[in-house]
Amino acid sequence: MDHKLLDILVCPLCKGPLHHVRAEPPKHPELICRYDKLAFPIRNGIPVMLEDEARALTAEEF
Asked: Which of 45, 37, 41 is nearest to 5 (CA)?
């Protein structure tokens, strides 16, 4: 992902910072909001910043 894009993206719910997590296949990269405990997927290099598309983080992940 472009670093400039990562610098301006925030969580769509709380407007807090996001942390980019790179992943090796078969996992997909994600943007993590630690405040809301959500992981937003990055598909084909495009962040999907929709609450309905986010997955809840488990206790071990945050």
From this structure: 45
- Structure tokens given for 35: 């405040």
pTM value?
0.88
Cβ contact 42:48 at 8 Å: yes
* Whether 5 contacts 17, CB under 8 Å: no
Q: Which of 55, 61, 18, 51 is nearest to 39 (CA)?
A: 55
DSSP 5: H
pLDDT digits (tens, 9 = 90+) for 3-52: 888 889 999 999 999 999 998 777 889 999 999 999 999 999 899 999 99
* Alpha-carbon Rg for the chain in angstroms: 11
Among 11, 3, 8, 2, smallest CA distance to 48 is for 11
